[in-house]
Amino acid sequence: MDDELQRTIGNLIRLGHVKSVEGARAVVTTGEEDTPPLLWLSLAGAYALFRTPSVNEQCVILCPEGDIEGGIVLAGLFSDTFPAPADGDHLHLKLADDGSVDYDPAGKLLLLTLANSILRIVVKQMKIVGPVKIEGDVEVTGKITATGKIKSDEEVEAAGVKLTTHVHPYPGLPGKTQKPEVLP
């Protein structure tokens, strides 16, 4: 094999580490040289997934005809700097600096964790089917309609009137009603 062909084959695929990212291009250190800004692969199309490569993330550069100027960066190789966050083939995980989305099909559990972030869902309409448990305070802006029983272990108050202690006058008679009776 001649030297030129061997050099071309050797330059088709290179390993490196992301040095910097700007927009949809990344500069990669490969060996002792830095590439020009190269496009990095994500998912484009009607359903797009945008994940910016991290600085120092290990990657592969595909160089058509061995030309680094036309190279494409394939980021996402685990390394000592960015080790695999989980082991096993049962877990689907999306991980960020302050949260994660974990799905364990064997345990039938989807867990969204946002340590110090806010989750905002914007939809035209939402329907949840199944029992719902909320731990923490709930604030609702808008009307609440219920078709089933509403139960509370604490006092219920509406427009300043407390359910368990309110009294009201008898129509046309002196005095007031007694407090509501607590049923067993």
From TrEMBL:
Lineage: Bacteria, Pseudomonadati, Pseudomonadota, Alphaproteobacteria, Caulobacterales
Protein name: Phage baseplate assembly protein V
Domain spans labelled Gp5/Type VI secretion system Vgr protein OB-fold: 40-78
UniProt superkingdom: Bacteria
Coiled-coil regions, chain positions: none
